[in-house]
Amino acid sequence: MSTFPEIKSTHSLVAKHVTKEKWDKLGAHKTATSGFTLGQAIACAVQFDNQHCGIYAGDWDSYKDFADVFDPIIQEYHGISADAKHTSDMDVSKLQGNVNPAAPVVSTRIRVGRSIDGFGLSPGITKEQRLAVENLFKNASKKLEGNLAGTYYPLTGMEEKVRQQLVDDHFLFMSGDPNLQVSGMERDWPEGRGIFHNQEKTFLVWVNEEDQFRIISMQKGGDVKGVFTRLVDGINAVAKSVKEESGKDFMLDEKYGYVHSCPTNLGTGMRASVHIDLPGYAKEGIDKLKARCEELSLQPRGTRGESGGMTGCRFDISNKHRLGYSEIQLVQTMIDGVNKLYEEDLELQKKHGI
Q: Catalytic: which of 33, 262, 284, 327?
């Protein structure tokens, strides 16, 4: 029996919910799909002192086998009840309106994660499973048609010219993220990983990064409805092809929605975001913007991602929730919230004489 680990992230959800009692009960267990352990699941919280959540799943089994740990963490993080069920809804026709064309939105991006049933998730996936997932996607990608048609670029053996172009387009995901390394997501790097994009560079799929698939739809401007429509078409096309090829569906849990390696992404796994200029709020102060976004169920970031600070007047505004709301609800919240922020920003510009 392995000894109860010292959890360095003392304020994390892992520190709160992984008790010695639970460890003694679950610490020696290995999951069936990828032989994943609770020790592997909480590696980031043990090794680093800066984790908020601090746990990853190595396969769908992890959420079930280690439910004594995962359930309370998921409930606390997402603010859901113990008996909550998740409903997915991607019916684009239910969306009301769009982002105001007058709003200074530079670009729109919506992403989700998806995982094929029967294979491990990135922290636990075996080498063979990872290559099988990549192969399924390679075959699926050849069947994508119309504005989804494009090319798959494996990371292994990638030509320098192709690599540089993907870097210039900000499409390439890199190795070296400490969380991904410690959680086991960068084992056998770069084998079995790659990037697909359509000819217009508005539809992308990352293969075997933090999730088996990260499916992304994006374009310049604020046509959120158009971006969401393409995303839904793309997800359906990939799902159909994978099903025809392997007989398998994407992992969809009635309680937790679409299964992701990080419990913070459970449910829709969706982040719908715009980059928008809000000079009035920039002048008013970041704290005011954060507080207002909280009221609108939105999350502001700097445009350089999660770790980049907020500078200047351009912000990344996205839906805050993932689980307990349908995709349609979250996209609608984002559209309505961005329109509200734009209206308020015009008033703040007047106030500050901008």
A: 262
